[in-house]
Amino acid sequence: MLTASSLSSFLKCPIVMVILIGLVIRLVVAPLITFSNDVAFWMFIAGTEEGGTGLYETTSYHYTPPWGYVVAVGASVCSLLGITDLGTFADELLPYTGGEYVVLDAVPSIAFSFMLKVPLIVVDLLVALLIHRFVSGRTGDERKAVAASAMWFLSPLVIVESSMHAMFDNIAVLAIIVCFLLLLDRRYVLAGAAFSLSVLVKFFPVFLTFLLIALVLKREGVDSHGAACVGRALAGAIAAFVLIELPSLLAGDFWQSLHFIISRLGFTAEEVGGIITVPVVAAILLVVIAAVAAVWYMERSRGTLSRIVSEAGTEGFHRRVRRGLVMVFAVAMIAILAYSFVSVGGNTAYEVFSSFGMRFVTVMSVLSLLIEFYLAYRLLFLGDSSEKRVATVVMLSVAAIFLWPPAPQYVLLIVPFVAVYAAMHMPALSRPLLMFSAAFAVYDIMMSNASALFSLAEYTGWISMDSLIPVVEFMCSYIGPIPMVGVVMAVFGIISYISMLYIPYTWYRAREVLHEES
Amino acid sequence: MKNPEIAILAVLVAVLVAGWAVIQVDIYGGTSVKVTAGDDGTDVRIDGLLPSDYHYSIYSGADVSSELYYWYDESVECRSTHQMQSDFFDSMDALLKVRNHEAGKRADTQALVEMMERTIADGTVSKAAVYFCGDVLPKAIMEDGLLDQWIRAGGTVHWTGNAMGAYVTSEAGIENWNPAAFFPEGTVADGSADLAHNHTYWSQRLMPTLSQCTNGLNVTALNENGIRAVSLGLINDDGFSSYAVCDYGSGRIYVLGMYTSAVFPAYYQMVSADVIASGIDTDTVESFSGDGKKGYWGTDVSIDYSPSAGDVLYLRLGSPFVNWATTHAF
């Protein structure tokens, strides 16, 4: 039976305090501040979905299907609760639309925005609880578990993304954490499914593929048993991918549904769809099957794979891997440069450079992938198997995903992994993590700027739209030929990017100190 | 809980399945509207599953084209890509579907020529409309004046892009043509973004944003030239409209003042779909309108207005973006 004293002691429990503080902040902020532009898109999607229009039938939805499904559920819950006012138009904003600084005259209602934020706040909470459970289970230290949870749940960036921006990256974070936990539990099929779900929510966890494979093999052995376990995870991942994408496949919208992923690589869905046709897919499958058969045959007849595995930890092999990765990067750079040259017809050096610049993200993604591969290789074949070392590789792998200056919501993925590592192994990372979270939160708020208060102005008398217009005008202004929004983006983006690099830098310095002490 | 991660995964899957199901179930498409008109007014009943805001208008002089064609020809180069045009028309179809309007039929240049010649010959031009979003016209309907003749005979054209007639295309490629082929010089915006800014504006209910004035018609100047033109969207101080319709012989031309490559075109296409589904044109007068909120399982709306024969009731559900709409002709 609940008594006053048991309630009091429950509320004094540190994790409960963290959760209550985090929830109170979110529930206060969520109705007041809404990054209007993105939520206006969710409003549009909700309207068309309810009308029976599929996700990709109109040219409005550019993400993979999962978030569209969540919006559909959210909008239906709104309707069931009688919330029918999804948003409105603000005439005052019309003169500022269509410029460099994105302003939409469509302003979502407070009720609709709040209803979409609720599931995202629940996701924040679930991640916090999973972090707490994991750290507590591993260390038996409640203080560390609470600290790790707090670094996530009270992170300014996490609060901004779920409760102001209504961006769904935290669902990808939740799914990838579930994937890691299932992997530790040796539930490889489900882990693979969670991995696919995470990638299909927001792409970036795909960079952790090498790491996840290395973790399975590290645990199960680099042998046929380990390969079978990887195979099970792969089967789960493929099955989940196909199931989630099935409606798009059946509707003929498959490549369009992958627009966000494909555009990260500097291509359009149409370009990729034109290249990857059914015969090409069949040919790739045949090549993969032939390669697996060849490896199997060479292993059976000459023990080639076993020899490579036994040599993989030697210094000579390590040197060859590093050299090979540098070669791969050089070839990739040349290939991307050549494609840039061909795609613009090679008219002028400026055009080639511009086209190459457009593919900067692709180049940095290749670099990220190679670093991810190297870290996974090191985890698998070099050094000891201590939990701290594994955790270090996981933390560094996640931190290495975003080598190009990313949008604030993307880097949410970094927060839980660094938080757990800081709490369990390196408290010195707590401060850089807080700085990183604060810098990206401020960056996102500055980019949203006055639009964060449009809903409040339209739906309450607390602030007038007229009072926000000067700020909108400022963001729409120019310094010479340079748009002000570009200046704001550059200043806050650079500060945020430096704060992100400060995390591995701090780890490196702290590691050196530890080495010196030992 | 022993395995919370499995429970979380299950919940995530359940949410996705529920979302997919919501999209598949045509909640508003299943809505039925019963309109009855008595001597003392009109009663409308909206049935359906979920509540929604609604808006109705009764238009006099609206004229819905029964056959909509999209000019789409992959054999000729256009100023906007074929993929953009294809996506644009797919999107239009989806938006028309939820407005209970037939989808458009894609016609290449040859099919378009045949349709125009056929409808002129059998006198059914006024039932047909053609949508161009390639920012270029096919040379085959320009060089012998077929398009001009067809519109003057009562055809309807929906246009988006630079000045209509400024460019034509054929298998030989894109050519400069005559920017004043359909509208007098100075009555079409020159693509300058400045037109969209630093102006006061006047708005009405069907409103694409003012930024679409960049390629819009100057309705004030057209009217001064004796060409009847009406703004359906927004209009700036100089008279440029984000979305306008003007008379052309017995036919009409609608100009949505945007490029096909505009960011988030569906936002503006919704207005275009409303115009097509409701049939409003230069003759149309909104004689009655109102707002309300539909409750669960049906709402009765009493409109204290006696419609005349030929009037059109256009009912839209959803705020502010349309979830579902329908036209009822009296």
What features would you highlight for this structure?
heterodimer; A: 518 residues; mainly alpha; two-stranded antiparallel ribbon; two-stranded antiparallel sheet; 25 helices; 4 strands; B: 330 residues; alpha/beta; Immunoglobulin-like; Rossmann fold; 2 domains; 7-stranded mixed β-sheet; 4-stranded antiparallel β-sheet; 6 helices; globular
Characterization of this structure:
The complex is a heterodimer of chains A (518) and B (330). Helices cover 75% and strands 2% of the residues of chain A. In chain A, helix 5 (110-139) packs parallel to helix 21 (414-424). Among the domains of chain A are: 267-305, no CATH class; 312-405, no CATH class. In chain A, the strands form 2 sheets. Chain A has a two-stranded antiparallel sheet with strand order 1-2. A two-stranded antiparallel sheet of chain A has the order 3-4. By secondary structure, chain A is mainly α. Chain A has helices spanning 4-12, 14-32, 36-50, 65-80, 110-139, 142-153, 156-163, 169-184, 188-202, 209-220, 224-251, 254-257, 259-264, 269-275, 278-302, 304-311, 315-343, 349-358, 360-381, 387-399, 414-424, 430-448, 454-459, 465-476, 484-517, and strands spanning 87-89, 106-108, 478-479, 482-483. The N and C termini of chain A lie far apart (53 Å). Chain B is an alpha/beta fold. Chain B folds into 2 domains: 4-58 and 285-329, Sandwich (Immunoglobulin-like), CATH 2.60.40; 63-278, Rossmann fold (3-Layer(aba) Sandwich). Helices cover 23% and strands 28% of the residues of chain B. Chain B contains 6 helices and 17 strands. Chain B has helices at 4-24, 82-97, 109-122, 146-152, 219-224, 266-278; strands at 33-38, 41-46, 52-60, 67-71, 105-107, 128-132, 137-138, 156-160, 167-170, 173-176, 229-231, 243-248, 251-256, 285-294, 299-303, 312-317, 324-329. In chain B, the strands form 4 sheets. Chain B has a 7-stranded mixed β-sheet. In chain B, a hairpin with a 2-residue loop joins strand 12 and strand 13. Chain B starts with a helix and ends with a strand. Classes of the chains: A mainly alpha (518), B alpha/beta (330).
